[in-house]
Amino acid sequence: MSTTASLPTTTLGAGGPLIGTQGLGCMGMSEFYGESDPAESWATLERALELGVTLFDTADVYGAGHNEEFLSEFVRAHRDDLLIATKFGIVRKADDPAFRGFDNSPGYIRASVDASLRRLGVDAIDLYYMHRRDPLVPIEDTVGVMAELVAAGKVRALGLSEVTGDELRAAHAVHPIAAVQSEWSLFSRDVERTAVPAAAELGVTFVPYSPLGRGFLTGAFQSAGELDQSDFRRFQPRFTGENAAHNAELLAPLAAIGEAHGISRAQVALAWVHARAAVHDLAVVPIPGTRKRSRLAENVAAATTRLSAEELATLEPIAGQVAGTRYADMTFTSAGRE
Ligand SMILES: NC(=O)c1ccc[n+]([C@@H]2O[C@H](COP(=O)([O-])OP(=O)(O)OC[C@H]3O[C@@H](n4cnc5c(N)ncnc54)[C@H](OP(=O)(O)O)[C@@H]3O)[C@@H](O)[C@H]2O)c1
Questions:
Q1: pLDDT digits (tens, 9 = 90+) for 56-92
Q2: pTM of the model
Q3: How many A from CA of 289 to the centre of ligand 1?
Q4: Which of 31, 32, 42, 210 to mutate to test the pocket of ligand 1 (most atoms within 8 A of CB)?
Q5: Closest CA to ligand 1's atom 48
Q6: Mean pLDDT score of the chain, rounded to an integer?
Q7: DSSP labels for 134-196?
Q8: Ligand 1 pocket residue status of 292, Cβ below 6 Å
Q9: If I label 238, which of 78, 80, 91, 244 is the partner at 20 to 30 A Cα–Cα?
Q10: Shortest-distance atom of ligand 1 to CA 25
Q11: pLDDT tens profile 227-249
């Protein structure tokens, strides 16, 4: 795996391959955050690799398979220089955009990995995540099936998304878990209670998703009303109505620190994630999502930006004051199997 001087490196799980300390979230290239320009998305992928990004993140549900297909050519062109991470476990319905079902049954997992391999056009997935826990399936059973995929050579390393510390420990006892991917940002710090300490204890790499608060922390938008009609964030409680106005005010310290350093708010938000990981003595690879080369370069630079103890103290109270939940009250079921 080649790396550049632009990004420092860490390992993916204990004894895993060396990867750049920031990855690229590719979800927005297919869905959720309004219209994309495929040519600029493609150029962003190429630039990311040049800047030392090695972990590229997708999932089978992003654009209902489109995101994996979009990444296929890029991944195959640079197969030895990057890691592709994808996920299974969330089931959606074409006629009900708000529906989210979870399925971790053995047959579903086995069919999902084959479908992802086909869409990506690769022989093996470098990092395969359970996207969400299915309440009907014990996590030990899920990881047992995932371990079979490793033995079969279809998957190289295992990851879990949105698990608690106890779930991670139970899973890790079945098969080594290389990475946990969960939302972690200045606005979303629940993971620091159990998942982060467990990951640090077990040597599991943490992959913070939505480290820019889905873009809100950057100041790029102040409320959901400014976004495209199709934008997923229009339905998220933190970005609508009075919550959005309240939450935008919480960003004043972020803006002030950015001005003092001559850096962007996005960079402050990312530098904060790296600083928190250091407090927990934890390897992290945040995966900010962008479809633009200019923003990519900005985000990569943040991996080596250091905030002072005083600045971190100013940012400390923000998460506790955020109004609104992370997700709207979507239908979360066991894919209609209960
Ligand atoms: N495991 C899970 O359940 C889960 C859930 C959500 C996401 N994810 C993964 O995590 C990745 C990142 O999360 P995310 O995309 O939801 O949120 P994010 O990284 O917090 O924010 C992405 C948003 O911020 C904008 N942005 C990026 N860099 C910026 C900058 N420097 N200045 C201003 N705006 C900037 C992006 O717009 P542009 O694209 O236009 O630049 C996009 O709208 C996703 O791509 C996906 O792979 C995983």
A1: 999 999 999 999 999 999 999 999 999 999 999 999 8
A2: 0.96
A3: 3
A4: 210
A5: 209
A6: 94
A7: -TTS-HHHHHHHHHHHHHTTSEEEEEEES--HHHHHHHHHHS---EEEEE-BTTB-GGGTTHH
A8: yes
A9: 91
A10: 45
A11: 998 898 998 999 999 999 999 99
